[in-house]
């Protein structure tokens, strides 16, 4: 109505100014008309800005379009992928976006603390009320499941806008990282203590060259053990962020390469290596680059470590229409049933007799399991204490 009335008014003024052409010079009349149009335009923009401000403040206006403007502004918050509450100055809920409705139900005209009743949230909100300014705080919702949230509070005119972003996933990731760091620090202490001890023992003047050489070899061994531990920890942590950029792998070639590398080591230890990998020929599958080599080498290395002299290790391959499998079976010391449930857990090691002489870190099988899972394949295993262990890689074929 405002626009329509003023256009009519402007038109009448324009006609009256045209009539003046009979009495005044044309250039004077044109200047008058120009300034009249400019004044109308500025007045129109001013009224429009007043209307937008009133809609934000929630103040009533005579323009029925104000209600439409409010809806547009509120609908903007529906685009947020997390809950948003708009509260009045007394912290009564004025509006909820679609995510807030989904998560908490309809709660218009209720106090926010009657809806979100967690102690941690309420205490943080009370602290905000004292400051009465823009704030960000983190809080925990222990029940029914342990969840973590980040809430941002923005004071906008006579309203408060509260956003609720769940940070549980990031919190768990941070805790896992801290646990890994703690475990790594603990694992590094032992070889580092040995290195320091032997460095303090070495005395070039009082010990023979043979003794000093022995100590240096131990230091060198422990140094490589620390490097291997750090490398495997980094490998395990990077798998979560590993980009799935796969390449085609030839299963038979990979098996031949790994078995060639380990055959001499098995022979040197007096372990008979029995292989039957003929069914792996013409088997191709997709896998992240170089990672399947790590899996085979880790499983063969474990078989070598934990199988006594005079025993056997068997490596075989099978193929069906949609799947291929590789089985590595040893006649080693085996793993107890209790330990078997945890062997793919990071930094878990079975009984000390299994690790005291091998220097295991408890990371290899965790990496193997994660790599296979990340690539869409599976690891199956079984073991009998004192009899031996079997590890089977099941490869899904596209």
List the helices and strands and how they pair.
Layout: H1 2-19, H2 26-57, H3 65-77, E1 84-87, E2 93-96, H4 98-104, H5 112-115, H6 119-131, E3 135-141, E4 147-156, E5 159-166, H7 168-201, H8 209-239, E6 247-250, H9 251-269, E7 272-276, E8 284-287, H10 291-306, E9 312-319, E10 323-330, H11 337-340, H12 364-374, E11 378-384, E12 388-396
Parallel strand pairs: 7-9
Antiparallel strand pairs: 1-2, 1-5, 3-4, 4-5, 6-8, 9-10, 10-12, 11-12
Helix pairs in contact: 1-2, 2-3, 7-8, 8-12, 9-10, 10-12
Can you walk me through this structure?
The structure is a single chain. This protein is an alpha+beta fold. It folds into 4 domains: 66 residues, no CATH class; 87 residues, Beta-Lactamase (2-Layer Sandwich); 73 residues, Helix Hairpins (Orthogonal Bundle), CATH 1.10.287; 154 residues, 2-Layer Sandwich (Heat Shock Protein 90), CATH 3.30.565. The chain contains 12 helices and 12 strands.
């Amino acid at each position: 109505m405002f626009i329509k009335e003023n256009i009519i008014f402007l038109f009448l003024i324009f006609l009256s100014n045209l009539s003046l052409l009979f009495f005044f010079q044309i250039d004077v009349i044109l200047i008058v008309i120009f300034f009249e149009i400019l004044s109308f335009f500025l007045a129109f923009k001013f009224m429009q800005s007043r209307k937008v401000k009133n809609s934000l403040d929630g103040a009533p206006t005579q323009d029925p379009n104000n209600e439409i403007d409010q809806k547009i502004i509120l609908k903007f918050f529906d685009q947020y992928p997390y809950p948003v509450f708009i509260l009045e100055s007394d912290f009564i809920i004025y509006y909820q976006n679609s995510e807030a409705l989904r998560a908490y139900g309809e709660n218009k005209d209720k106090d926010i603390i009657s809806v979100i009743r967690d102690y941690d949230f309420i205490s943080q909100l009370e602290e905000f009320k004292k400051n009465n300014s823009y704030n960000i705080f983190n809080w925990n919702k222990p029940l029914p499941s342990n969840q973590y949230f980040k809430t941002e509070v923005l004071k906008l005119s006579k309203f408060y806008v509260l956003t609720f972003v769940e940070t549980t996933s990031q919190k768990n990731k941070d805790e896992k990282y801290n646990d890994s760091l703690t475990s790594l620090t603990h694992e590094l202490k032992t070889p580092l203590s040995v290195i320091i001890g032997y460095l303090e023992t070495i005395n070039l003047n009082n010990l023979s060259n043979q003794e000093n050489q022995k100590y240096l070899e131990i230091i060198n061994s422990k140094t490589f053990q620390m490097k291997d531990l750090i490398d495997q920890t980094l490998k395990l942590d990077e798998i979560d962020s590993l980009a799935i950029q796969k390449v085609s792998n030839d299963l038979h070639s990979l098996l031949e390469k790994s078995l060639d590398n380990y055959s001499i080591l098995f022979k040197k230890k007096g372990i008979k290596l029995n292989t039957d990998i003929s069914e792996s020929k013409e088997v191709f599958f997709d896998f992240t680059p170089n990672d399947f080599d790590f899996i085979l080498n880790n499983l063969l290395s474990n078989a070598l470590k934990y199988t006594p002299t005079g025993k056997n290790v068997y490596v075989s391959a099978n193929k069906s229409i949609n799947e291929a499998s590789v089985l590595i079976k040893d006649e080693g010391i085996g793993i107890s049933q209790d330990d078997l449930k945890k062997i793919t857990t990071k930094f878990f090691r079975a009984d000390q007799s299994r690790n005291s002489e091998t220097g295991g870190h408890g990371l290899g099988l965790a990496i193997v399991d994660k790599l296979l899972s990340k690539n869409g394949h599976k690891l199956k295993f079984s073991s009998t204490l004192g009899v031996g262990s079997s590890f089977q890689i099941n490869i899904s074929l596209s």
